[in-house]
Here is the input.
Amino acid sequence: MRLSQFWQRMNEQFGEAYADSLARDHVIEELGSRTVRQALDDGVAAKEVWRAVCESFGLPAAAR
Here is the structure.
């Protein structure tokens, strides 16, 4: 998954403003207790981050 696809999915699921806030502020256990931005900055693959977001927020299978 490209980073642009990741952000497109984030915006579709959460809206642009909330997606940005969530990425900066919400700590996700599956990402090693990091935020989305921290995980991406640390080199975690966008696909892995997206899976963690889906799991953490219980997104439906269609969104995954």
